[in-house]
Amino acid sequence: MTSFVLLVAALADAGQPPSPPNRPSNRPVHRGAAAFRRQVEQQHPAVLVVGGLGLQAAAPPGFASLVGRAVVLALIFSPPMLLSWLAWLWPFFRNRVWYRMLTASLARAGTAFIKWGQWASCRPDVFPTAMCAALASLHSQAPRHGWRHTEREVREALGAPVDQLFEDFERRPIASGSIAQIHRAVWLNQTVAVKFSGTMVAQTRLDIEAEHLRRFGWNFAAWRDVRFPRVLAASEAVLVESYEAGELVSTYTTDLTLGVSSGSGGADPLSREEAHFVVSRGEDLYLKMLLLDNLMHADLHPGNILLRRARRYGRNSLALLDVGMACTAREEFEADMSDLFRRTCRGFGEVLRGVLALVRDRGVAIDANYMTLVTNVLCLEGMAGTLVPEYNVLDAARPLLDAHRALPRPLFRLAMPLVASLKRVKDRVCR
Fold this sequence. Notes:
Helices cover 53% and strands 10% of the residues. The protein is built from 18 helices and twelve strands. Strand 2 (175-176) and strand 3 form a beta hairpin. Residues 168-431 form the Protein kinase domain. This is Protein kinase domain-containing protein. One of its GO terms (molecular function) is ATP binding.
């Protein structure tokens, strides 16, 4: 857990990417977005993101702050720690009570611990299935702030009360994660999502996430089956974006981990074709971010991936959420990571876990970008192991990795659509 906490802290200092080139997007602008921006500009001109963004590094905490934080964490984790002996001896208590106590303690401990819980819930191959199922609630049911905080943030950020800006606004959040919670609202007869930063995360800037959304949206504009929410307005504490319908992939991974045959909340179970699409397309977009875009979603777990299931004569599609954490990499770093994966693409995911174990045991300081890449791969591998156990993430990536190593970057950029198409054909044949 300590290494993962350090990872989250390192990612918080990662620089944001430059603005995407000023080129027209293939996707239509969200209906009413310009009007919404004009309305907000008139009431609060400083709310919208214009130009580049910069963050000032926070001063390191003092000794007294560290001691105080240690005391608080000791109190938060004292219930599961004091009862750990009973959980060890009594399986019923461990599965029904202790794992829930641990989840509650992680939720109260703060953002870094929630992030660890989200990652751990994706690894039923590492942790007990009952523990993974309990931790899965941290994907969308983390602690929430009250309605008064929501009203105050809307008024300060958008310059008007909730009832004046929106035709309808659901007081109950539809989701709550490690750093923010999301409400569904209606404006100009269209559904939007309104995201608020949490009360305990003062350093969170949702305008940074808005910039990432714009960049990711541009990078994946040509992908008809991958979507990112479109930004309507953004401030440091509030983000208004298009509402993306669908079912969280974590719904299905949790049910499969528990051996439940139907999705939570009445969702139908995934077909083999749908499960294979989630895993293979998730790997495709991950490799595109790594090898081509130089912009990586740093929090790719099933709770941040929505599946929009195909209607009749339609197609499945994915929507990626919560892009507040993103990292960039130099070309030299990309080449090193590509070579690492090419060498370990023999079906041994344990290699990466062994690297993390050595780092933890030896106390080695490691690059945040490398940790992001490895953590994302492990989350994808865990998702694949749950949805499509026979699918090997690393082996399936070999065609793209070999092409990336053999071709100069300009040629690889031109050849990637063809290589990716060949990979998809291979995936279908092996399905």
